[in-house]
Design brief:
This protein is mainly α and 135 residues long. The chain has one domain: Winged helix-like DNA-binding domain superfamily/Winged helix DNA-binding domain (Arc Repressor Mutant, subunit A). 55% of the residues lie in helices and 7% in strands. A hairpin with a 2-residue loop joins strand 2 and strand 3. Helix 2 crosses helix 4 and helix 3 crosses helix 4. The two termini are 34 Å apart. 16% of the residues are buried.
Length: 135
C-alpha cells in the first residue's frame, strides 16, 4: 500500500430488499463508509460510479474530466477524491485517478487484507502493552 495512513470504515447494515444495481452500489459504498448523509447531491457516489465505469479500461481520469462529466466543481471532486484515497479505494497517478482495483470483488478482497493487517498490528501492540502492564 502506498499510504502510511488509511481510514478503514465498515458499516454493517442490512442489504436492501429491492435488487437493482443502484441500490446495491449504494449499499456497497455506504457499507464501506464512502457515502454520508451530508452529501445531498450524492457527489461521492457519482464520482465512484464514474471511476468504476473507467476501471475496466484502466483509464485514469483527471479531476477536471470528472468535474466536467458530472457537472461538479473541481474543488468538490478533489475533496471527494481525497476521502476516497484516504479510504484506500482510489489511487492517484500523475494527478489522475483510478480505482485501486479493476473490479469491486478485488477491491473488497484488498480491503479485507488491509483490515487483517491492521488487526494484526493492533494485536501485536496490545500484547506489548499488556506485557508492560503485566496483565
Amino acid at each position: 500500500m502506498r499510504y502510511s495512513y488509511q481510514r478503514i470504515t465498515l458499516i454493517k447494515s442490512s442489504r436492501p430488499e429491492g435488487r437493482d444495481i443502484n441500490s446495491d452500489l449504494q449499499w456497497l459504498g455506504s457499507s464501506l463508509g464512502l457515502f454520508n448523509i451530508r452529501d445531498k447531491d450524492k457527489s461521492t457516489f457519482r464520482i465512484f460510479i464514474e471511476l468504476l465505469k473507467n476501471s475496466k479500461k484502466k483509464r485514469l481520469l483527471s479531476s477536471d474530466e470528472i468535474a466536467e462529466r458530472l457537472k461538479l466543481s473541481r474543488g468538490t471532486v478533489i475533496h471527494h477524491m481525497n476521502k476516497l484515497m484516504e479510504a484506500g479505494i482510489v489511487m492517484n497517478e500523475r494527478n489522475r485517478y483510478l480505482l485501486r482495483e479493476d473490479n469491486l470483488e478485488l477491491l473488497v478482497t484488498d480491503i479485507g487484507k488491509d483490515i487483517k493487517r491492521t488487526v494484526n498490528d493492533l494485536r501485536t501492540i496490545a500484547k506489548e502493552i499488556d506485557k508492560w502492564f503485566e496483565i
